[in-house]
Amino acid sequence: MLRWLIVLGAVLVLIGLLWPWISKLGLGKLPGDIAFERNGTRFYFPVTTSIIISIVISVVLWLFRKYKGDQVWFSEVKKDPMYMLLREGKIADFNSRKSHGEKCDLTHCDFRGLDLRGLDAGGIDFSHSYFRQTDLRGVDLSTSKLEGASLNGARISGTYFPKELSANEITLSLLHGTRLRYSGK
Question: What's the whole-model pTM score?
Answer without folding.
Answer: 0.62
